[in-house]
TrEMBL record:
UniProt domain Fatty acid desaturase: residue ranges: 80-337
Organismal lineage: Bacteria, Pseudomonadati, Pseudomonadota, Alphaproteobacteria, Sphingomonadales
Species per Swiss-Prot/TrEMBL record: Blastomonas natatoria
Transmembrane domains' residue ranges: 50-69, 76-94, 114-133, 162-182, 232-258
UniProt name for this protein: Fatty acid desaturase
One family name in Pfam for this protein: FA_desaturase
One of the record's GO molecular function terms: oxidoreductase activity, acting on paired donors, with oxidation of a pair of donors resulting in the reduction of molecular oxygen to two molecules of water
């Protein structure tokens, strides 16, 4: 099994980044790293529309084509092969929701509408569920606290929370069908239910204490249009299955594939951070060290952390850099700062090593308590 320790020193018994993240109040900002990150990547901030469209459309085409192949396949083995391809491709297509939250509206013309039409609505993850939420995770004084919708101190929680965290995602598609096909229309005539739906079931979050507010102005109109479309699709899906128009077998295969994408994303989320902060404000450097890069030479991270997500720590350092420019940004910073720098401490080797490290942390936390 590959080491879960930083690439800069794979023989260490504990990751220095983890130690620093745990004592976040004592981590001063590494201004040399922060300045280098800004100065060396100024020319990388522009999104390339062609890259976004080609990547997303290819992922969608392969994903839905493989889903159809899984439904129509004669043998179980071939169906499983198609299903695996569909999970990976649709997972990649869905991961563009993260990019949507960071793109300026005019950066990639039409991409928001195109992604919602091809991915967000069909998979019942319209972009408003991340827009207005993910940006809170990047606020310096909110990150890692109870006000962060995308943070839980998993490394300090009970060991059973790790498998539960992943298993809950498997039920995601059913929850989304209920949210849009049942709760949304009911909430139109039951005002107290509407408040619950908006506050608790309108964001892709992991912090159960987070409560969302309905946005205003154009953002509110954008939300309502997408929610109406998603609700119409969910109710149509329910009706098609109930009347037998859509065979139950085909529906269950599609449900399993979408569930697979959500489980894969949840596993990726599990190792996106070290999850060792407990409601303490963190410096920019501490936030970086609490986050994870899994850079080359490994190839598998392109499958389980696509669309730039393998450079998650770097993304927290440079949230404005588009996903296709992150590999070059990483190369520049690694070359300039070297293997003994703070920058190198957020680089890890593998998914398996990070999961093992997190599980060990939960057992250590239990012993300490």
């Amino acid at each position: 099994m590959a080491s879960s320790f930083p690439l800069s020193d794979p023989g260490r018994s504990a990751a220095p980044g983890a130690t620093l993240a745990r004592a976040s109040g004592q981590v001063p900002d590494d201004m040399a790293m922060i300045r280098a990150a800004a100065s060396l990547t100024r020319d990388l901030n522009a999104a390339k529309p062609g890259v976004y469209w080609i990547d997303m459309l290819a992922s969608v085409t392969i994903g839905y084509g493989a889903l159809a192949g899984a439904v129509l396949a004669d043998g179980v083995a071939m169906a499983l092969v198609f299903a695996l391809v569909a999970v990976l491709a649709l997972y990649r297509a869905g991961s563009f929701i993260h990019e949507l939250t960071h793109l300026r509206p005019d950066a990639v013309p039409g991409f928001n509408k195109g992604w919602n039409a091809l991915v967000g609505i069909p998979l019942l993850i319209p972009s408003f569920m991340y827009e207005g939420v993910h940006n809170l995770h990047h606020q310096r004084l909110r990150y890692g606290t109870v006000k962060d919708p995308e943070y839980l101190p998993l490394a300090l929680m009970k060991p059973w929370t790790v498998p539960l965290f992943v298993l809950v995602a498997a039920l995601g598609p059913i929850g989304l069908i209920v949210r849009y096909g049942v709760l949304s229309p009911l909430s139109l005539v039951i005002p107290p239910l509407r408040r619950i739906v908006v506050e608790r079931y309108s964001g892709l979050v992991i912090n159960p204490a987070f409560r969302r507010a309905m946005p205003e102005g154009e953002a509110r109109r954008h939300w309502l249009v997408l929610e109406t479309l998603a609700s119409a699709w969910a109710m149509t899906l329910i009706a098609l299955v109930a009347t037998g128009t859509l065979p139950l077998r085909a529906f269950l295969i599609g449900l399993a594939i979408v569930s697979g994408t959500m489980v894969l994303n949840q596993v990726r989320t599990l190792v996106a951070h070290l999850w060792e902060n407990e409601d303490e404000p963190m410096s920019v450097t501490a936030q970086y060290l609490d986050s994870v890069n899994v850079p080359p030479p490994g190839l598998l991270p392109e499958l389980w952390a696509p669309v730039g997500l393998r450079y998650h720590a770097l993304h927290h350092l440079l949230p404005g850099v588009p996903y296709h420019a992150l590999p070059e940004a990483h190369r520049r910073l690694s070359r300039e700062l070297g293997v003994e720098s703070t920058y190198s401490l957020a680089n890890y080797r593998s998914l398996s090593g990070l999961v093992v490290r997190l599980v060990k942390s939960t057992f250590g936390s239990r012993a300490a308590s």
